[in-house]
């Protein structure tokens, strides 16, 4: 013979009430666990909020960098200043900062930054992201910032654009003087030469200090290059390099470049082509000036 099954201490009419009470108690306990003893809801498991994020400068001139770093390096080192603030989700937040190309398909450089201060739940971050770029790497880049909590929960991500440019202006050649324009070959006497005096004016809109060298090539009457195809250097050093190599420059640093060319006995007669050009410290070339000389 069977007996009716009742919840402990509950008569059948109160059965639904007895089943509901444990659920209410459980919900109450869960809610109480979310509150601290001060009644403030615990945000430890919440995502931090990135309030501000900046990266400066927003424009990087690779040619100016190359000038500062000593000429024509293939790879240039630079940095951007990072400043940010965030609403904390608890202690242990860090700011993840990455430099990425415009298509964001790779990461060029990255750092993790800890807060420099924390006041009333607002964290401040400040630091430097250092990186290297090829001198040819012009275009748009992004600095990407995300605050990550101690539990690995990220904030929203902010992007700041960095424009990488090249603004170098090449040197300019002018006032070419070649004397004489017709030479008689030297006699067959040791130490006697036919002398050709060359001067040219070189200027640079970025300053005279940006001029790296002034050169010329000489093409012989048969179409081949003199000096084994290597350029001849001209000088603006007041003659400091010595007359033995043809440095007859009168005034150092005045922008007038000089070279005296000695043509020995046996120099092939005919028409010679002289082509002059200047280069700056970035490697940009000036206009070319051409002069023809006849050797008889």
Question: What order do the helices and strands come in, and which of them pair?
Answer:
Elements: H1 15-33, E1 49-56, E2 59-61, H2 62-68, E3 75-87, E4 94-101, E5 109-113, E6 117-119, E7 122-134, E8 139-148, E9 158-165, E10 172-179, E11 182-183, E12 194-203, E13 211-219, E14 232-233, E15 256-263, E16 270-280, E17 289-295
What does it look like?
This protein has 296 residues and is mainly beta. It folds into two domains: 49-165, Immunoglobulin-like (Sandwich), CATH 2.60.40.2550; 172-295, Macroglobulin (MG2) domain (Immunoglobulin-like, Sandwich), CATH 2.60.40. It is 9% helix and 43% strand. The protein has helices at 15-33, 62-68, and strands spanning 49-56, 59-61, 75-87, 94-101, 109-113, 117-119, 122-134, 139-148, 158-165, 172-179, 182-183, 194-203, 211-219, 232-233, 256-263, 270-280, 289-295. The strands form four sheets. The protein has a five-stranded mixed β-sheet with strand order 2-9-8-4-5. Strands 11-17-16-13-14 form a five-stranded mixed β-sheet, with no helix packed on it. Strands 1-3-7-6 form a four-stranded antiparallel β-sheet. Strand 4 and strand 5 (109-113) form a beta hairpin.
């Amino acid at each position: 013979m069977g007996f009716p099954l009742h919840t402990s201490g509950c008569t059948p009419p109160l059965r639904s009430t007895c089943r509901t009470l444990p659920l209410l108690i459980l919900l109450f306990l869960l809610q109480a666990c979310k509150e601290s003893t001060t009644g403030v809801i615990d945000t430890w498991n919440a995502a931090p909020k990135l309030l501000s994020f900046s990266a400066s400068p927003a424009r990087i001139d690779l040619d100016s960098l190359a000038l500062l770093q000593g000429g024509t390096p293939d790879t240039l080192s630079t940095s951007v200043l990072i400043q940010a603030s965030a609403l904390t989700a608890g202690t242990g937040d860090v700011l993840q900062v990455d430099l990425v190309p415009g298509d964001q398909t790779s990461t060029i450089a990255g750092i993790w930054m800890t807060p420099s201060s924390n006041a009333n739940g607002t964290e401040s971050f400040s630091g430097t992201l250092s990186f290297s770029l090829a001198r040819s790497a012009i275009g748009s880049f992004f600095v990407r910032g995300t605050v990550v909590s101690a539990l690995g929960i990220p904030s929203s991500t902010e992007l700041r654009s960095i424009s990488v440019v090249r603004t170098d202006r090449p040197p300019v050649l002018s006032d070419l003087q070649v004397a004489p324009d017709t030479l008689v070959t030297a006699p067959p006497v040791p130490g006697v030469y036919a002398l050709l005096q060359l001067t040219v004016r070189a200027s640079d809109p970025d300053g005279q200090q940006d001029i790296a060298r002034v050169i010329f090539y000489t093409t012989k009457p048969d179409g081949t290059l003199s000096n084994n195809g290597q350029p001849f250097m001209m000088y603006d050093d007041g003659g400091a390099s010595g007359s033995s190599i043809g440095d007859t420059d009168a005034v150092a640093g005045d922008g007038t470049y000089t070279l005296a060319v000695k043509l020995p006995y046996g120099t092939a007669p005919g028409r010679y082509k002289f082509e002059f050009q200047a280069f700056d410290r970035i490697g940009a070339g000036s206009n070319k000036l051409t002069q023809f000389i006849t050797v008889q």
